[in-house]
Model the fold of this input.
Amino acid sequence: DSGVTQTPKHLITATGQRVTLRCSPRSGDLSVYWYQQSLDQGLQFLIQYYNGEERAKGNILERFSAQQFPDLHSELNLSSLELGDSALYFCASSVDSNRNSPLHFGNGTRLTVT
Amino acid sequence: QQQVKQSPQSLIVQKGGISIINCAYENTAFDYFPWYQQFPGKGPALLIAIRPDVSEKKEGRFTISFNKSAKQFSLHIMDSQPGDSATYFCAASYDAGNMLTFGGGTRLMVKP
Done:
């Protein structure tokens, strides 16, 4: 168990809808990362937060947004959903934001857009 | 743009054999190369990592070999066991950040 909690585990929704994925990092970890895993794109970095502030952005669509709250949990909001957004969304956390801190991944949220 | 290319996509090895997975990268700014192991229904878990100032790192049955001039690195799993059956991802990052660029993954099956 990595200590990173993601909810819900599964989410089924229709095109055009909006969903929120939630992540609780490991106790003591200040940095949260979101990754998307799909069959055609593989594992792709979306966005990183450190202690409440956005630290880095990757291949995140404008329809997607995220935030990290004062209690350090994070939410990834996906709107105007399309069929191609169906994927596994992973949250990871680390103690700080540099590469000396290993990333610990949660077990993901599987999003299915119908 | 796939900056880290991983091969093979799938690999079948007999128990006790050596599993070898290769990765090649394009961005010479990469300076941190971890390997992750992922079991079905689970998130990736860090297995072993290397920096370009060393050519090899060993942890138990897992060894990373790194060739900076060729921009390649590989994972060797010695004495492969059925419990090693999983998907393995190489990754790379640069600067002081932890934004990993992942390879496409290798699905390893170790037959008893």
